[in-house]
Amino acid sequence: MPTYDYVCENCDHRFELFQSIKAKPIRKCPNCGKLTVNRLIGAGAGIIFKGSGFYETDYRSDSYKKAKEGETKTSSDKTDKKTETKAKDSKPADTAKPTKKDKKKSA
Predict the structure, then answer these.
(1) Phi then psi for 55, rounded to 5 degrees?
(2) Per-residue pLDDT tens digits for 18-47
(3) Per residue in 40-94, pLDDT tens?
(4) I want to staple 49 with a disulfide (CB 3.0 to 4.6 A). Which of 20, 54, 58, 77 is the partner?
(5) Where are the domains of the chain?
(6) What is the DSSP string of 12-38?
(7) Is this structure's pTM higher than 0.90?
């Protein structure tokens, strides 16, 4: 059963009402009591599956899946290139220059 939005034209009272699809829209305002209530047209909500066995990713379109695969491949390629660049730029620890203290001790 859906939830409908209503507004009173007299007092501008806005409210929601849980009604059957077959039920007629109400006319009487619960706030002021006048017969000036109108049902609003809304965008509605998406379908919500309740219970076990339903996942939001089960019904993805093919175009979404292809775009996601391309995005994943591109990001993994960038990560590999960054790792290679860091390896080339870094110096091994053995080639570090001796400090002044090290020179005094050896002399």
Answers:
(1) -130, 145
(2) 888 899 999 999 999 999 999 998 766 666
(3) 987 666 666 666 766 666 667 788 888 888 887 776 666 665 555 555 555 555 5
(4) 54
(5) 3-39
(6) --EEEEE--TTSPPP-S-TTT--S-EE
(7) no
Q: Pick from 60, 62, 67, 9: which is nearest to 39 by CA?
A: 9
Residue 37, judged by CB atoms within 10 A of its CB (0-12, 13-18, 19+), counts as buried
Residue with tokens 């220059």: 97
Tokens of 30: 């619960």
**8-state DSSP, 90:** P
Read off the amino acid at residue 24: K
- Please count the other Cβ atoms lying within 10 Å of the Cβ belonging to residue 36: 15
